[in-house]
Amino acid sequence: MSITPGTRAWVEVDLDALRANFKVVRETATPARGVLPMVKADAYGVGLACAVRALEPLAPWGYGVATLDEGERVRELGVERPVVVFSPVAPGYERDGVRLGLTPVLSGPEDVRRWAAAARDAGASLDFHVEVDTGMGRVGCVWNDAADWGAAIAAECGGGVRWAGVFTHFHSADEPDGGAAATTEQRRRFQAALDALPVPRSELLVHAANSAAALRWPDTGMDLVRPGIFLYGGSVTGAPAPRPVVAVRARVGLIRDVAAGRTTGYGATHVAPAASRWGTIGLGYGDGVPRSLGNRGVLLVRGTRVPLRGRVSMDMIVVDLSGVPDAAAGDVATLIGRDGADEITLDEVAERAGTLSYEILTRLTQRLPRVEK
Ligand SMILES: *Cc1c(COP(=O)(O)O)cnc(C)c1O
Q1: Is 373 marked active-site?
Q2: C-beta of 129 in contact with ligand 1 (< 6 A)
Q3: Of 73, 119, 208, 359, which has fewest CB within 10 angstroms of its CB?
Q4: Does residue 168's CB lie within 6 angstroms of at least one atom of ligand 1?
Q5: Is 93 known to be catalytic?
Q6: Distances in Å between the alpha carbon of 340 and those of 245, 249, 301, 329?
């Protein structure tokens, strides 16, 4: 896909930056076996296929996804590395996972029994990982009775069914205050579970770190690290900023001079305090622009910051171009990214919108074509 003067709005993806961010994680955390980049949710909205193709030459250990469909999309790209499915799969669908050679994350002996039966039915082998719940409370086996569930899980293995990995997930690795204490406690619980398992440590891949843990506490690297947001340009508390990966741009469609007192947007929440120039931009919540940016967002036009006026509509927003007298219809407006000397970072947009970089990225809709830079 290329950008023409008629292209309304698009997402630019810088794959060199994605690769550079991957290398930062790998070199900071130096995990023993490698990096397991998370490409779930269409690689955080960046585009699963382009992210996987960009990362393949760097030989990641494997890929992390949330669903069977996402795992299938990775396999369709010809990837033979492990693909770990981190969210629970509904009973009855194990055989699809087995057929695709995916590695499920399982939460107890019952899960292992179902998956092992599907593998044996298909005459296929199965590797699985077990999550240890050290406080996240979503999935996994609870850390403090690891001897029991560990023995029950080990009893289900054999005949091509292999317990390949064990991991936990930190809930506060990115919290500025208290994150360190919470993470220390989760590490203690995880270690207690590992110590209680009846399986030799050397037989299991052990992992814990998301982006924030891998960068803030490189000793959480263990065998694998599982970065997501940092690869895609979201910054992490206490670590140097990543290279920006995503820019969101759109055309100024129409410019009008308006008199004081004119209103814009649903609810007429903005009233021009004086004569102004308004520019209408082809971007809205139908593209993933949060409505919470209404009267709070900024964009760049010709390198100058311009404020968003009124509410965000589905397909359009209005900015005040009074400070950019030479602006013209067809100009490129930047919601996220650099334009000239100024830059609006992903994290700045997230903060203005009262949310996280993760949500800003993953809600960019398919209406915006992804263009490789
Ligand atoms: C999404 C996810 C990650 C990546 O987290 P980031 O904060 O994006 O680095 C790591 N591990 C698991 C289990 C995840 O679901």
Answers
A1: no
A2: no
A3: 359
A4: no
A5: no
A6: 17, 14, 9, 19
* Alpha carbon distances (Å) from 221 to 195, 215, 279: 18, 9, 48
Q: What is the pTM of this model?
A: 0.97
DSSP secondary structure code for residue 122 in this structure: H
Tens of pLDDT, residues 204-246: 999 999 999 999 999 999 999 999 999 999 999 989 999 999 9
Gap from CA of 228 to ligand 1 centroid (Å) = 6
Which one, of 37, 68, 41, 66, lies nearest residue 53 by Cα? 37
Residue type, 9: A
**Ligand 1, pocket-test mutation among 26, 186, 210, 237, most atoms within 8 A of CB:** 210
Regions of the chain where pLDDT drops below 70 = 1
Contact 318, 279 (CB under 8 A): yes
From residue 362, give the alpha-carbon distance in Å to each of 48, 228, 233: 12, 12, 13
Q: Among 62, 37, 61, 33, which Cα is nearest to 223's?
A: 33
| Token pair recorded at residue 350 | 């997230």
Cα–Cα distance between 39 and 80 in angstroms, integer?
15
Task: Give buried/exposed letters for 115-124 (b at 16+ CB in 10 A, else e).
Answer: bbebbeeeee
Closest CA to 55 of 34, 72, 84: 34
Interval between CA 34 and ligand 1 midpoint (Å): 15
Q: Would the CB of 169 count as within 6 Å of ligand 1?
A: yes
Count CB atoms within 10 A of the CB of residue 352: 17
CA dihedral for 343, 347, 352, 358, sign (positive or negative): positive
From residue 298, alpha-carbon distances to 151, 293, 312, 337 in Å are: 56, 8, 12, 12
pLDDT at 130: 98
Residue 189 CB less than 6 A away from ligand 1: no
